[in-house]
Inverse folding.
């Protein structure tokens, strides 16, 4: 499905450097072509074969990249690199996927970068999907020109990306920034990660839906959009769930403020799309729970790139890494 604006190709010309960015998700592979200033040439999406073997997913990613390269070739756009964001922990120097994700059961221990470079004959850069979303918001979205940013994604789970002095923070084994799995209750709800009381078991979209359907089993919901609709209609179960969500989200955001003292926290993901009012309520509650010195001046804002953040971040990451490594771009 083509959803972008192909006229941008002519406007952008050939002087700028372009990448294909890819965001591998549990249900869709989103990808597109952009230059280093975030000018989008075209974007695409195709379904993820989530239960397929790793080789099939690699082939699908390579097909997506080739599709982008073909499109770029037809419009005389030079592609210098491919960037990919994937669920799971990625060894960033080698592009090796270590960790797995429940949504893609066979997607683990995959030398993604080497396999894609073999298939595509272009430089490939791979990192965790939440890191790529954070990088996208930092480079082009709600975190532009702010060197210390934490990005929180309230979706099926809770993703986190941390930018410190303009660089992604990854930890000793490239497995850090998993803020959705900080425990907020020692004997709380079990989490598929093996932990107990993880933040995402309380404040993710999944948690909201589970909680709502427990309170109102007669009229169950499948999405948080319906919960927010019922909230605005004054329904009691929805009001309980949304007010709880604001407090649970605020607990985690307050922890982030106290630990990182960031300039800005960006809240994205499907749950945040309900509107600025929701993020403002979380911000107010979080600041009230934070230490005064850490909370002073912190800005808590809604993400601005929507579901483009992942692939755009991957494209920016690829071009920035390329420039760092070989002085190009
Ligand atoms: Zn967990």
């Amino acid at each position: 499905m083509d959803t972008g604006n192909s006229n941008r190709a002519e406007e952008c010309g050939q002087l700028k450097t372009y990448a294909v960015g890819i965001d591998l998700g549990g249900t869709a592979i989103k990808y597109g072509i952009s230059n280093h200033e975030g000018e989008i040439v075209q974007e695409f999406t195709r379904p993820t074969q989530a239960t397929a073997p790793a080789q099939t997913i690699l082939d699908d990613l390579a097909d997506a990249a080739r599709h982008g390269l073909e499109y770029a070739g037809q419009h005389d756009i030079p592609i210098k690199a491919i960037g990919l964001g994937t669920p799971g922990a990625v060894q960033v120097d080698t592009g090796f996927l270590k960790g797995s994700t429940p949504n893609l059961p066979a997607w683990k221990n995959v030398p993604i970068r080497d396999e894609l470079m073999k298939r595509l004959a272009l430089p490939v850069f791979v990192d965790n999907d939440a890191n790529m979303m954070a990088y996208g918001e930092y480079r082009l979205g709600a975190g532009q020109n702010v060197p210390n940013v934490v990005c929180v994604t309230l979706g099926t789970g809770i993703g986190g990306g941390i930018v410190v002095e303009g660089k992604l923070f990854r930890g000793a084994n490239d497995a850090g920034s998993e803020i959705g799995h900080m425990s907020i209750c020692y004997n709380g709800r079990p989490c598929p990660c093996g932990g107990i009381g993880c933040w995402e078991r309380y404040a993710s979209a999944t948690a909201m839906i589970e909680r709502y359907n427990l309170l109102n089993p007669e009229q169950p919901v499948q999405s948080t959009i319906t919960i927010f609709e019922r909230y605005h209609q004054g329904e009691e179960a929805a009001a309980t769930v949304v007010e709880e969500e604001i407090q649970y989200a605020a607990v985690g955001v307050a922890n982030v403020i106290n630990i990182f003292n960031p300039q800005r926290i960006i809240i994205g993901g499907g749950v945040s799309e309900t509107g600025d009012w929701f993020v403002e309520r979380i911000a107010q509650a979080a600041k009230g729970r934070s230490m005064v010195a850490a909370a002073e001046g912190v800005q808590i804002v809604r993400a601005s790139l929507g579901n483009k953040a992942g692939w755009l971040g991957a494209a920016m990451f690829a071009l920035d890494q390329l420039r760092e490594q070989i002085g190009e771009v």
About this structure: Residues 8-134+307-326 form a domain with the Nucleotidyltransferase; domain 5 fold (CATH 3.30.420.40). Confidence is low (pLDDT under 50) at residues 1-14. The chain has two domains: 8-134+307-326, 147-304.
